[in-house]
Amino acid sequence: MNDHGGISVARRTAGSSGPGDGLSALLADYHLRTEEEKGRPVADASELPDRYRAEVEDPDGAFAGAAVLIARDGEITAGCLVVTAPVDGRSEIKRLWTAPGHRGRGVASALLHAALGEAARSRADTVRLSVWQWRAGAIALYERFGFSVTAPWDERADLVCMERPVRGADDCTTPLTS
Fold first, then answer.
1. Is 131 exposed, middle or buried (0-12, 13-18, 19+ CB in 10 A)?
2. CA separation (Å) from 29 to 8, 72, 150?
3. Which of the four, 33, 107, 132, 156, has the lowest number of CB atoms within 10 Å?
4. The whole model's pTM is what?
5. Could you tell me if 56 and 82 are in contact, meaning their C-beta atoms sit under 8 angstroms apart?
6. Where are the beta strands (DSSP E) in 24-75?
């Protein structure tokens, strides 16, 4: 368990998905908002592109082998983040999302701290992520965590690719529960 000012972060156990889990709802919110920001709004998760709908409907299958982190504010699911297992020394952060009613409370920071710890424990050398250029607040947060813009590995327009080295023990300050 990782605790930041009342926000706790835990690694989600595969198969623990259910109505009270909150992960599918967070992923649906993330993807619906992203499609809206891209100028392609859809009414609900059933209309999302197949790849994204699959994450909402089956997060265990979509993120098999990755660490799925859930942030809670008390008993309420407040945010999520996925960090992949290292490939060629690199882990990738995906799907960082804070429920709108919990923004400004340190949820994203707590999730990022936990993700960097996961990457360090899995012996990644580098952590990378991509973010839409219009998400200026997220880019500023990533920069505060030491991420810098790098050459793109994903050529989609308006996508900013960032990375930072894993700092070993400095990124593993608090163990998470499984």
1. buried
2. 21, 16, 28
3. 156
4. 0.89
5. no
6. 67-73
Q: How far is the first Cα of the chain from the last one, in angstroms, to the nearest whole number?
A: 8
- Please report how many Cα atoms fall inside a 13 Å half-sphere around the Cα of residue 127, on the Cβ side: 27
Token pair 């992949």 in the structure block, residue: 84
CA atoms of 64 and 4, how far apart (whole Å): 27
3 bridge partner residues: 8
Strand 67-73 and strand 148-149: pairing?
unpaired
Q: pLDDT tens per residue, the chain (178 residues)?
A: 454 568 999 998 776 655 557 999 999 999 999 999 999 999 999 999 999 999 999 999 999 999 999 999 988 999 999 999 999 999 999 999 999 999 999 999 999 999 999 999 999 999 999 999 999 999 999 999 999 999 999 888 899 999 999 987 667 654 444 3
Task: Give the separation between CA 1 and CA 120, rounded to whole angstroms.
Answer: 16
How far is the C-alpha of 141 from the C-alpha of 139, rounded, in Å?
A: 5
Among 95, 87, 34, smallest CA distance to 70 is for 95
Residues in the chain: 178
Integer angstrom CA distances of residue 89 from 92, 122, 125, 165, 170: 10, 9, 5, 10, 18
